[in-house]
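Protocol step 4 of 5: obtain the predicted structure for the target chain.
Materials: sequence only (see below). No template structures provided, no constraints applied. The aim of this step is simply to have a reference model before the mutagenesis design in step 5. Sequence pasted as it appears in the construct record:
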Amino acid sequence: MIVVTTENVPGYRVAEVKGQVFGVVVRSRGLAGNILAGLRSIFGGEIIEYTQLLEETRRHAIDRMVKNATMMKANAIVMMRFDSSEIGQTMSEIVAYGTAVILEKQS
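Step 4 output (structure tokens):
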């Protein structure tokens, strides 16, 4: 599955648009992670616990999006984007979305 943030893929043409596709994940850091992150925020700098959580969540959202595109019989996703928000003070929502398409090699 080709996943790109661009509208076009060099060497390919869009033969068919299947439609919008997305993957949603909501995660929360456990109590211990929140305590460690809270302590780190006192001293400043990167909060590694949250960075790791968001990186894993983005990967998971992409995996779900690709699975949905596969079910639609697409072989690529163009114009892929991320959106994120907080739910309450302890949960993060990450959405990966784009347009599922069928790409064909140009001759």
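Step 4 remarks: The chain has a mean pLDDT of 88. The first helix runs from residue 31 to 43.
Proceed to step 5.
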